[in-house]
Each structure stands twice: as C-alpha cells, then as structure tokens.
Amino acid sequence: MTAVQAPPSAPEVLARCRDLVQPALREAVGRLHPWVAEMAAYSFGWCEVGGAPAAAPGGKGVRQALAVLGAEAAGADGRAGIPAAVAVELVHGFSLLHDDIMDGDATRRRRPAVWKAYGTGPAVLAGDALFALAVETLSVAPRGAGAVRLLSAALADLVRGQADDLLFATRPCTGPERVTPEEYRVMAEGKTGALLGCAAALGAALGGAPEAAVDALDRAGRHLGVAFQLVDDVLGIWGDPAVTGKPVGGDLRERKKTYPVLAALGSPAAACGLPELLGAPERAEEAAALIEAAGGRTATLSEARAHTAAARTLLTGAPLATEAAGDLFRLLDHLVHREL
Length: 340
Known about the structure:
The protein is an all-alpha fold.
C-alpha cells in the first residue's frame, strides 16, 4: 500500500516558493546600477558593505510565497506568479529602506540598516530604484498591464497607512485626539495588509484567475496583514529577544502607539496611570505589566484571531485549487501563531 504523503509544513511552503523566486529576484537586482545593486543586495542579506558575499538573515519571503500560491490557486504553474513575487518583494524592500529612515531605526535584521551602512541619500536612492524596478518587472509580464494597476492601488494604500502611522506619533494618548483602535486597524491594513493582499492577488491575476478569486485573495491577504501586524505588536512588547531580535518592551521604550497600548488606554484600569508610564522609557516593564492587566494583550490576540477567521472565510468561499488553498491555510496559521 502506498503511504499517504503528509502535506508540506508552512516553513516548507515558504522555502519552496523562495527557491523558485530567488533566481529571478537576483537577476532583477543585477540589472541595477552596480552601486545601487550592492545596496539592494545588502538589504536582502546577500552581501556585506563592499559587496563581499554574506549569509545574513533575510526576510521570511511571505509576500513572494503568497504570489506563487496565488498563481497556483488559479490552477496555473507557480512559475506564472514569479514576476508578481519579484515585484512585491522589490516593493517591500523599497518600503523597508524608507521606513528605517523615517523611523530612525538604525538596525534591520540584527545588522546596520542601509541608511546607517551607506548613508541616508544613497538609501533613499536604492529604495527608489527598487520601486522603479518592481514596476518594470511587472509591466513586461504576461497580463502585466492589469497587474500594474493592482500594484498601484496597493501602493496608494501603503502610503496612506504609512502616513497615518507617522501622524499617530504626534497625537496624544488621551482625550478626543487620541488614536482609536479602529483607526489603528485601518492603518495596519494599509501599511501591512495592502501589500500582502496585493501579492496573492497579483499571482492569481498572472495565473489567469477570475476576478472573484483575485478579489477574495486580495481581501484575505489584507486581513492576514492586520493579524500579522497585531501579532508583531504583541511580540514587540512581550516577545523573547532571542527569537525576535528586539529588546523586551522595545516598542514601549520607543513610545509606539501599538494596538495593545491603545486597547489598554481604553480601559479604566489603565487610563490614569499608563500615559505617565509611556512617557518614561525606563519604566517600560511597569507599562507592559499594566497593559496586560488592563487586557491589552488579550484584546490584541482576540482581534488577530478575528482577522484570521475572516481571511479563512474568504479563502474557503473562493474558487481556488485545492492543494494551493491548503498551502495558503497552513501559511496563514503559521504567520499568526509564530513565537506566541
């Protein structure tokens, strides 16, 4: 009797898609000006400053996996989604280069951010180059014209989300001008969810999926993005530094208005004492304890589960190829339950 083969795990799905996409991604980056290509390669963890080969940790490859799986969900070969995967990975790289400058983050994946390693001006230039390369890559692909329109819409949402995120830092913790959890959800959908949804939708579009499937994948990816950001918020306060690479309570020391903070500020148990603690970075441990006692952590994880359920409902109701849908479900569960 032939043994039934177990379905691939989420890390195996990520690795398979990454192996499929990486040669095309490297080829695309190699078309850039040599200096700009070096900065891009450094940002992806492929080289050190100066160009020497490196094996620095890169990203998980979530967006490129969603693009490949989107094509497979349409019944096409995963290779049909490679231009989409390359484009969204380039756009994600562009956004990280600029985010690090805007946020003043000196490190990325446990080594100097590009702007610290090469300078602010060069880092901006490298980000611009990645953006232009993403559009070029997608525009020359089969069905590329429609795909570029999808990418443009997602980029507009990403910019709106980033703008809201920057403005949140200037708003008070209490009173009528405070940031609400609903405003945060909208911001997270734009800043994180738009590109995840776009990745899956682009892959499906290039794979020839009907509009209903493309739309369902886009909306499911947006819910996944919000859930992913919410889990990041929990890890940013209570995560294990050995796993996250960030200090305990790092988000609190930087006074970020993450979802656990906003949820706790809406509770009478924390409304009085928490603003004072948030203004004192050295008291981050006290702030974390108060946020948890006020239900901030529980509320955040509950919200993440709600968005995960919404994504699952959309995927279940969409006309997707069975095997690819299974890989999408496993990836969804893996991303929102990581390190918790």
